[in-house]
Specification:
By secondary structure, this protein is α+β, with helices and mostly antiparallel strands. The protein is built from 3 helices and 10 strands, in the order ββαββαββαββββ.
Length: 171
């Protein structure tokens, strides 16, 4: 039997041999042309139910609060108090208070900030974020930069971040 999977638009084929191997299914294998993977992956970590979507939402919220709104006092809603951030220069920032001070110095020097999440990928307790940043520097020159960050989520909060920066350009 052959057909097209409505989810992936791939051509599928089921042979009579496959039908006999799938006898545990409630429908005969000849009736199954596409099996859609689960859309939501759920995980329980330290008693907290998390999903890929909820983990991505934490990262999006962090970017919005820190880089676009400069609302540093609200970062406690997304960051764990004992968080660790591994900066691109090799230094580590340990603890939420230290992170807030680091961000104040890194964010507030820029005017007309626009930090955009370009792509998020989440698996288990990790989220990868590909981002772009556009702003005007203290001298009035525009700056554009891209980068990638990896976050580890623990107990429904951002617990750890690894930062990789691209090369800044003036455009």
């Amino acid at each position: 039997t052959s057909g097209t999977c409505p989810t992936t638009s791939r051509h599928t084929t089921t042979s009579s041999t496959e039908s006999s191997r799938h006898s545990f299914l409630s429908e005969p294998a000849s009736q199954i042309v596409c099996v859609r993977p689960a859309a939501v992956q759920l995980l329980v970590v330290k008693g907290v139910l998390v999903s890929a979507d909820s983990n991505k939402a934490l990262v999006r919220r962090h970017i919005e609060l820190a880089w676009n709104e400069a609302d540093f006092d609200a970062l406690s809603e997304v960051w764990a108090p004992d968080c660790v951030v591994h900066l691109a220069n090799g230094r580590d920032v340990i603890g939420l208070d230290a992170l807030i001070e680091q961000l104040r110095g890194a964010v507030l020097v820029w005017d007309d900030r626009d930090c955009r999440v370009e792509e998020l990928v989440s698996e288990r307790d990790l989220v990868a974020n590909r981002w772009s940043f556009h702003a005007v520097g203290p001298s009035g020159d525009p700056l554009s930069m891209t980068g990638m960050d990896f976050y580890r989520i623990d107990g429904g909060k951002l617990a750890e971040e690894w930062i990789a920066l691209g090369i800044p350009t003036n455009d």
